[in-house]
Predict the 3D structure of the following.
Amino acid sequence: MKKILKSTLAIVAVFAAFTSCNNSGKSGGKSGALSSNIAEKVYVAPGEHDSHYAFISGGYSGNLTVYGLPSGRMFKEIPVFSQFPTSGYRYSEETKPMLNTSHGFIPWGDSHHPDISQTNGEIDGRFIFINENNTPRIAKIDLKTFETTEIIEVPNSAGNHSSSFVTENTEYVVAGTRFSVPVPQRDMPIKEYKGNFQGALSFISVAPETGNMDIKFQVLMPGFNYDISHPGRGKSHGWFFFTTYNTEEANTLLEVNASQNDKDFIAAINWKKIEEYVNNGGGKMMPAEYAHNVYDEHTHTATSTMKKEVRVINPTEVPGAVYFLPTPKSPHGCDVDPSGEYIVGNGKLSANLTVHSFSKMLKAIEGEKFAGEAYGIPILNFEDVLAGSVEQPGLGPLHTEFDGEGNAYTTFFISSEVVKWKLGTWEVIDRKPTYYSVGHLTIPGGNSRKPQGKYMFAMNKITKDRYLPTGPEMEHSAQLYDISGEKMELLLDFPTHGEPHYAAAMEADLVKERSQKIYNLEENKHPYAAFSDSDAKVVRKGNEVHIYMTTIRSHFTPDNIEGIKLGDKVFFHVTNLEQDFDVPHGFAVLGQNTSELLVMPGQTKTSVWEPTKVGVWPFYCTDFCSALHQEMQGYIRVSPKNSDVPLKWSMGEDIE
Ligand code: K7E
Ligand code: CUA
């Protein structure tokens, strides 16, 4: 309580400093974000580029947003798990299969933890992965095109939260269940949870060349909640660590019932050992149903395949592969330092921050010194694996990142601050308030062997008075700090979109160099593509009408179409013939019950329209593409069902 008071006072004090400086117009000296040399640190002159990309999860928006650092400017929202009318994502026929699941078409998701692919423990900027909690899925975004190109559903999982973190060479992207459930799902009494429900930890392999994902195996763990995970690296490469809570296995009023045990666990999984077991035919195939959706860059079309089985492993089958490390009080974050030696368990209800030692863990395993077991999984002694603890650093620790200089930075939700401390000595070096109630924080390259220092940003849950009010709902706020010195320095507030949980960030160069500018028209393999105005045509197949349409500044071909009848299903297959960077064309027709399309240069996209009324209906380009954008329009005539108006189309002439 005292602590809360103290930090509240600190916040008030800082506030007072801000306001007084603001009011007097004097340079207050140490007045943080208001002094001009700090403004220079985040200023990116018009036309110049930011030095870092930040990919910030959209939480309940289901998407991923792209920001520049240090400016805090948002560049793009990449649709991942949610339909997105701004680009026609999951409204166009080609992209609909991406949101297919074993539960049918799902238009929304809750995305938390983006993580960038790695090679040799360093960020390589090829792909970014992100999890969907609600209907468990993992998505892959290609950082060449900034498009979601693959989504795999995760069976036997629920509240897919300890996901989607990658191993040192992107061998696996890992997805862990938050909620334990009956495996396989079945009709059973909820109160029989304990001892019957299970938690699946999934290891999804990523093919080195193509990046194709496949579930290699699932480890079926006891019915705890698996909260966050991180890969081992360097010396601990080959292991994966998961925090757990609710080791009480309560199924009701968890805020009380899941806070009983003095210690929960960090589960340490030797995935190399299990991989070897699986490669030798270990584990068993179990019936399951899960969708695997893949977007093809050449046909510009996604396909969805329903998979029928998954390989599952019981941890007791592979002795020496799974251990529990006792960790105080419902740990949330599970963070591994760049050397791979320290594993930080952020106990939400614990006064101290617990750090485990990987080498001590190995030694304890070797000595076979166990405190007991849970469901056949050995529990190590807390004292045997403890590297040290940071004494009373703050209240409500959630997540930790590292700067690669031997320092760690932990967020504290309740005391609303970021605390910098030293690995090895466990002493607190600095603390800075956040505005307000911080969740995750990110250092570029933070989840790798080589963090890229300089900046850290905190993502806050509560915004309140930081910006002009926008009604009861305020966008969440992020805060950027300079961490190049001994003390952290607050540089900037910037609004984020949805609810950011984690973010992945990196130096801009790798991604920037590889970013694609157009789709090559010659490589377009879409079955309904038209490669020039003379390819444009309209084909009737029963009551389906396929319009092969082209766009180029500033007309559609065809732009006059007749002979459509009520009851027809009209497919506008729009090919954008442009081969210039950043010249999309849009398409929309009156009365359409789907979104517009936004078609990139060289791409073909399809919009479906089932007219419900007789008349002559206009269509137009929705993206301001040239001085004559407003002229980029056309008409389509819809006649009664039994009419004999012949099918005709044209451009630049009157329809005869
Ligand atoms: Cu702490 Cu979902 Cu990573 Cu939110 S989670 S903060
Ligand atoms: Cu094409 Cu506007």
Observations:
- The longest strand covers residues 284-296.
- The pocket of dinuclear copper ion (ligand 2) is lined by residues 551, 554, 585, 621, 623-625, 629, 632 (CB under 6 Å).
